[in-house]
Amino acid sequence: MNARRVSAGVAAAAALLCVAAWAVAQKAEEPAPAAVTTTAAVPAAATDPVLEHGRYLARAGDCVSCHTAPGKPAFGGGLPMKTPFGTIVSTNISPDPEAGIGAYTEAEFARALREGVAKDGHRLYPAMPYTSFARVNDEDMHALFVFFRNGVQPVAQKPLPTKLPWPFSMRGLMMGWNWLYLDKGVYQPDAARSAEWNRGAYLVQGLGHCGDCHTPRSMLGGVKAATDKKGELFLSGAIIDGWYAQPLRHTDRPTMAQWSSEDIVQYLQTGRTGHTAAFGAMVDVVQNSTQHMSTQDLQAVASYLQSLGARPDAASAPPTPSQASLVAAAPQHPTALALRNGTVEGNSGAMVYLNNCNACHRSDGTGANKTFPALAGNSVVNAKDPTSLIRLVLAGSTMPSTTQAPSPIAMPDFGWRLTDADVASVLSFARSSWGNQGEAVTAAQVAKVRESLKPVAAAKAN
């Protein structure tokens, strides 16, 4: 990005400061929607291959999760997203001509998705990931238009408008933000890569908009690297929704990029593998989006992710231990032997583990296949940022319910019975046991996450 572009963009965008922070669609206080099934408006249209392709693409883009309020018709909008700058309400994208997008032409539809400009010309906030959707090609954009025009039941109710306080209400300021962060142009295949790799890159960078959650952002809310060609920050992990969205590329710690293609596909289809499980925002992603994608497309996604951050000299460099290797060695690890023999200190993290975690995750930290995630080698346990791990212990989580794995197995919350010091000690123990190499967790870190959960608990109570 040249200096002229930066200075011109900052001049308009500086007034936003962090208004685009919710470009990552922070929804820490919103009620989590259940899995939603779209309803066709015209049954006969189901035989239209273009419409069905559009339906598939809408699922790949997970449009329904943000544009459907809990208990309301699909794509009718109205989902409130509370942010530090006010509440953003998702719009109605059903084909109703008054309340929805039924009056949009195909060109206007494409402009909204690729440039963030509505039919009447007002700028959309980047909670709508148009910076990623800009990469969608013309054929797929046409199929999406056909689906939303003919394959969705019109919803006549118009959601409440988004009213942010000044200056965040000045949508025109988004022109400066777009100058900095919107790269126009559909995805261009890399001739040096395979067709499978390019398909995976197209899905991850475009409709999947994975970078919108898994890539860190600047002060102005734009992702620091929009594609793999923009640098190693792409998909390197970021805080979103009060969770730490894990790195999806090779790093110096265990990540999904080390998994086998089979495990990545299984995780995206079911929300679980033999050693780990989805939590947080990924529960909705799996339920409403990736479980509906073809195995071939998910294999392409795996191929692309496995290539990110892979070193050409990897054969000569010390390899980062994989979760599979740590799980295999865990039963004979000194930690496992000490737990089995009961040779642990009374007030230690090991004792907290024995009393609260051992029954499910076992003394060797290997858990139970597709039921209780393994802690040995787990990317969440080893992450540089322990936010997600702390939140899981304090508030618990529930696995997705999918066609292939319908049981929504849950981890209970322990925040009610463990002090901040207890949580810090047991997590520090887990992050340094069975071959794990995570840093110690402090009671102050736990207290910070506990405080952030109070608004979430209040929202659920209401």
Describe this structure in words.
The protein is mainly alpha-helical. Among the domains are: 3-164 and 171-189, no CATH class; 327-461, Orthogonal Bundle (Cytochrome Bc1 Complex, Chain D, domain 2), CATH 1.10.760.10. Helices cover 39% and strands 4% of the residues. Strands 1-2 form a two-stranded antiparallel ribbon. Strands 3-4 form a two-stranded antiparallel ribbon. The chain has a two-stranded antiparallel ribbon with strand order 5-6. Helix 2 (49-60) crosses helix 6 and helix 10 packs across helix 12 (295-307). The longest helix has 13 residues, at 138-150. The radius of gyration is 23 Å and the shape is globular. Residues 1-45 have low confidence and may be disordered.
Outline the fold blueprint.
Blueprint lengths: L2 H11 L35 H12 L2 H4 L13 E4 L2 E4 L16 H10 L14 H4 L4 H13 L23 H8 L13 H11 L5 H4 L23 E3 L2 E3 L15 H10 L10 H8 L6 H13 L15 H7 L4 H8 L7 H8 L1 H4 L17 H4 L4 H9 L1 E2 L11 E2 L8 H12 L11 H10 L1 H8 L1
Antiparallel strand pairs: 1-2, 3-4, 5-6
Helix pairs in contact: 1-7, 2-6, 8-12, 10-12, 15-19, 18-20, 19-20
